[in-house]
């Protein structure tokens, strides 16, 4: 199956506590159908001190979101669906709302 959302894409959150916010995709977890978006779905984790982090304490980090709860943002910043087409013998993704190549 072709990936509609890739790392580095700008996405809009469609559902959940961060609905309406936009962010950049940091990581895609295709086997779990989840994505990690920068600054979205922040959770607190208690970490114990280690040699790498002698302080330890409570750290904020991004938790993953389900793919169905995010959509690619088009040039106007609105949520759009993704289509595929062939240009110059190359398969490319394009925004359904504007027709722009992503």
Features:
102 residues; mainly beta; SH3 type barrels; six-stranded antiparallel sheet; two-stranded antiparallel ribbon; 10 strands; 47% strand; elongated; structural constituent of ribosome; RNA-binding; KOW; rRNA binding; Large ribosomal subunit protein uL24
What does this structure look like?
- This protein is mainly β.
- The protein has one domain: SH3 type barrels.
- The chain contains no helices and 10 strands.
- It has a 6-stranded antiparallel beta sheet with strand order 6-3-2-1-7-8, with no helix packed on it. A two-stranded antiparallel sheet has the order 4-5. It has a two-stranded antiparallel ribbon with strand order 9-10.
- The protein is elongated.
- The mean pLDDT is 93.
The figure for the number of domains is 1
Shape: elongated
Please tell me the overall pLDDT: 93
The amount of helix comes to under 10%
- Placed side by side, the strands forming the largest sheet appear as 6-3-2-1-7-8
* β-sheet strand percentage: over 45%
Record the SSE blueprint.
Blueprint: E1 10-13, E2 22-29, E3 34-37, E4 42-47, E5 57-62, E6 65-66, E7 70-73, E8 79-80, E9 82-87, E10 90-95
Antiparallel strand pairs: 1-2, 1-7, 2-3, 3-6, 4-5, 7-8, 9-10
Can you describe this structure in just a few lines?
0% of the residues lie in helices and 47% in strands. It has no helices and 10 strands.
